[in-house]
Specification:
By secondary structure, this protein is mostly helical. The chain has 16 helices and eight strands.
Length: about 400
């Protein structure tokens, strides 16, 4: 009852914003002495306004229509206040205004949070990441249309059941040939992005709790492909008759001996070559993916490849083909070398972590720095200690124990 006594609604003319002799009508909501003012999107002549009744004077049709409109807005403001009381929310003038205008949390939708994410993160996320969010958005809209027969949904109606339903929907998707579109990990990636959107809504105050609270992400672990020393040597020693394959081979080997990703190799310029602390040539650059700085001492084989393609005219250090063409050429290289592995450019990064560095005794902390990882756990996913290294370490231990 005490709260009710502090609640007041007042209609008034804002004469400071008069235009063409007409003044806009505003509503002022006051709760516990604090105000919030709302434009009612209506205007009238100041001489037609009754300061006592806070309505228009007279009973002519124009005044009657306007007063009925104001009565409806008064009733809606009262309703907003009552709704907030029933929901046991903190009652403020601003909260009533937000509910009245439809901009509070209960009125926010899935499309609202997606739009907010795209606007605020458009300049932050990489184009590839934004593209992935676009794919997740498309699946969410398809799910709403096919499973819920709607084009949008209020955030307050997104529940654990909605999440599990979306999970099942993704797993059922098939292409034109009837083959499943998404693997388990592909499904998890879409759910991961959806979860980030829900967490954003919570941070914005648009949701109270996450629908993912009891949902467990289950990624399947798998060994990342890499070349062992024998396979790497075989590719190095093979000469290809086609210039495109020979060039692709060299660029791939360069990545094997530096650990750089495709885009980081492609973007290398002469400015990225510096003299390191040991007086030798190093590569200094930032990872395109995370902008983490990397300083990589050039191994001899990597340096030789740079010299082979040195071109004073080009702004780039190496003649890198498009990602699609490069990976297609790598598949041809693997086929001609009879390497039974799915060869892609990223295999070079795994090869550097495993075969070139860890297998040759380079500490994992150093490998992590060379790869531009901010966390050691990330490096442990990329690199594995091969059996040969385990045997050598145990032999060293045995010699010390003896």
């Amino acid at each position: 009852m005490e709260q009710q006594a502090t609640f007041r609604i007042l209609f008034w003319l804002n004469t400071t914003k008069m235009k063409d002799t007409l003044a806009p009508i505003y509503a002022r909501v006051t709760i516990n002495g604090r105000r919030a003012e709302i434009s009612l999107r209506r205007q009238c002549l100041p001489e037609s306004w009754d300061e006592r009744t806070r309505r228009l004077k007279g009973r002519n049709p124009g005044a009657t229509v306007m007063n009925n409109y104001l009565d409806a807005k008064y009733a809606r403001l009262l309703q907003c206040y009552e709704e907030l009381l029933k929901e046991d929310r903190v009652i403020t003038a601003q909260a009533v205004k937000s509910r009245f205008l439809g901009s509070d949390a209960t009125s926010k939708t899935l499309k609202d949070v997606i739009q907010h994410h795209n606007q605020t993160m458009g300049e932050v996320l990489k184009p590839g990441t934004l593209k992935n969010y676009g794919a997740t958005e498309k699946y969410l809209m398809d799910y709403l249309t096919k499973a819920h027969k709607t084009s949008n949904i209020y955030l307050k109606n997104i529940s654990y059941q909605f999440v599990t339903g979306f999970d099942s929907f993704l797993r059922r998707q098939k292409d034109k040939s009837g083959k499943k579109q998404l693997s388990n990990n592909g499904t998890m990636k879409h759910l991961e992005r959806f979860k980030k959107l829900m967490n954003l809504a919570i941070k914005l105050g648009w949701m109270e709790k996450s629908p993912f609270r009891d949902f467990k992400m289950k990624f399947e672990k798998f060994d990342r492909a890499y070349l062992n020393q024998r396979e790497l040597n075989y590719i190095e020693e093979t000469r290809f008759s086609r210039a495109t394959l020979e060039t692709t081979k060299d660029i791939f080997l360069f990545a094997c001996y530096t650990g750089l990703s495709y885009i980081d190799v492609k973007n290398l310029t002469p400015e990225n070559l510096i003299k390191g602390i040991n007086g030798k040539d190093w590569i200094y650059c930032r990872r395109e993916k995370s902008q983490t700085p990397m300083k990589i001492p050039l191994l001899e084989k990597a340096w030789d490849i740079l010299q082979k393609y040195r071109n004073p005219v080009s702004e780039f250090l190496l003649p890198v083909y498009s990602n699609q063409k490069t990976n297609n050429y790598l598949k041809e290289i693997a086929s001609q070398c009879k390497i039974p592995k799915k060869l892609s450019f990223h295999v070079a990064r795994h090869t550097f972590a495993t075969t070139i560095t860890l297998s040759n005794g380079v500490p994992i902390e150093t490998v992590s720095k060379l790869l531009g990882h901010s966390k050691l756990s990330t490096t442990q996913i990329y690199a594995r200690v091969v059996d040969q290294k385990i045997g050598e370490d145990m032999d060293l231990l045995q010699s010390k124990l003896s």
